[in-house]
Amino acid sequence: MSKIEKTKNCEVKITAEYPAEEWKKAQKEAFKKLARKVEVKGFRKGQAPESVVKQYITSQQVMFEAMQNVAQNMLVDAVKEHDVELIDQPSLDIDTLTEEECILVFICPVKPDVELGAYTGLGYEPKKVTIKASEVEDELKKIQEQKAELVLKEDGAVENGDTAVIDFEGFKDGVPFEGGKGENYDLAIGSGSFIPGFEEQLVGMKAEEEKEIEVTFPKNYQSDELKGKKATFKVKVHEIKKKVLPEIDEAIIEEMKIEGVKTLEDLKKHIKESLKNNKEKEAENTALEALLEKINENAKVEIPAVMIKQEEEDMFNQYSYQMMSQGIDMNTYFKITGTTKEQLMENMKADAEKKVKTSLVLEAIAKKENIEVSDSDVEKEFADMAKNYSMTVEEVKKYVKEDSLKADLKLQKTVEFLKKN
Question: Are 26 and 69 in contact (CB under 8 A)?
Answer without folding.
Answer: yes
